[in-house]
Amino acid sequence: MAKIWALHDPNLNLLGNRGQECYGTTTLKQIGQKSSEQAAQKQRTEELQ
Known about the structure:
By secondary structure, the chain is of the alpha+beta class. It has one domain (3-48). The chain has two helices and two strands, in the order E-H-H-E. The protein has helices at residues 20-23, 28-41, and strands spanning 3-6, 45-48. The radius of gyration is 12 Å and the shape is elongated.
């Protein structure tokens, strides 16, 4: 099974909270959940860093 690594920048925790008109309202947690769902659908493992 293939492994997908997602590296997070220190400032990504501000997604959905700061600059919503520019960056949108989706939070890092929501992005992580969607990423995990898609990895499972494609039978991949995911490791968030």
